[in-house]
Amino acid sequence: MTCFQPRNLTMMTDLYQLTMMYGYFKHGMTQNEAVFDLFFRERENSAYAMMAGTESVVEYINNLHFTEDDIAYLRSLNLFDEAFLSMLLELRFTGEIYAMKEGTVVFPYEPLLRVKAPIMQAQLVETALLNLVNHQTLIATKASRVAYAAQGDEVMEFGLRRAQGPDAGIYGARAAVIGGCSGTSNVFTGQMYNVALKGTHAHSWVMSFPSELDAFRAYAETFPAACTLLVDTYDTLRSGVPNAITVFNELKAKGYKPVGIRLDSGDLAYLSKRARAMLDEAGHSDVKILASGDLDETVIRDLKAQGAKIDIWAVGTKLITSLDCPALGGVYKMAAEIVDGKLIPKIKLSENVVKMTNPGYKKVLRLYTKCGMALADLIALEGEEIDATKPLRIYHPEQSYKTKVLRDFTVREMLVPIFIDGKQVYELPSIEEIRAYAQKELATFWEEYRRLLNPHVYKVDMSDGLYDLKQKLIRENKKQNDDEIKA
Q1: CATH architecture group of domain 140-320
Q2: Residue 264 vs residues 231, 292, 312, 315, 431: alpha-carbon distances, Å
Q3: Which of 5, 11, 134, 236 could cysteine-pair with 240, CB 3.0–4.6 Å?
Q4: Domain formed by 15-139+326-482, architecture
């Protein structure tokens, strides 16, 4: 948990949430409840995503309330009557939220969060939930891909100065640690979440001294037990590395252990191999080589393939902005309405198949081999049970002729309760616990699903009950539309 008082983000919403709430209020629908699913659709560059943002959701819901100043501003819009504004002033979240744990590997169309609440509350929280989960899940996923490319090497998040604003930098750094980074350069995130901090110095440090050697000596004198030197300000191999070796020799003579050098430009494969040879020859085989400079998973993969001698990867802009895929595209859709205690499944139809929704009050089941490897996910209705002692046939969601029979498997329910009756029931884990959980999660998926290019598509199916319900609602809506046209 953070060491800071959470902000009140109640007003971080879209106007149409408030106008819909007002409409529900005016039409006597305040006692109605609704079920909404938050999920994302297909991604072009990854077979999976990594859930993040649950902690921010908890903080948001716990602090959900309108202040007198908020109400005064809403009154100034001349859109709402005083009865509605008085109701808003007393509003608190009283519903339930189930969610994937942070660090969970997730897939398209699966509910990452399931909200069941009075319809006005469920509507109000849409924008904030999407904002919090979309961004952090996006960055955690990108970090997971970067860490995969690094093949076990340490990865640091170095992107604060290029992030799209303070929140993107702070919470993006936290998400990057969930995805696999070992730490960040972001001091605020380090303070808030107890995340490991790492940094060296900039080229300006070197340029501030009469010579590169003077700059290195000054830095070593200041940080003798944590000395990593940036060696590419003038000439990496002719001055940077030799001067670093000189300073490292002096540190060793004083009983200190040099930490590393940083390469920030040039041909990182060539420079790292030459620098490694020079360091080894000088007796500094334990000195690490850290690389930075517009890195991402594809660059790291190629540098690894070329035999680059890089121990630590500092990844900035392309990670914190998820440059190749700048939005997750998560959506929040009504799946059911509860009127007078009766659950009424709802479906959104579209000529674009990917924009159709799955109706009902649902859960997500993950099926594993007996040795713990993920086989497939099943989106099922809440009341459905899967008998793991019997073979189970699953189908492709659209191309139903594609089937697979699963045998000898175990079942895990993926959504866990976060809020029940408006009360938090989930204990927030530490960032270290989330990161460890994420790595354990990833280890349950075969390499084919995790590779960077053309990954194998993980199987996500609908249960028989959900499939039948969806087809029933499609038929009923089509008939109703046809009847209205005839009339």
Answers
A1: Alpha-Beta Barrel (3.20)
A2: 8, 5, 12, 11, 29
A3: 236
A4: Alpha-Beta Barrel (3.20)
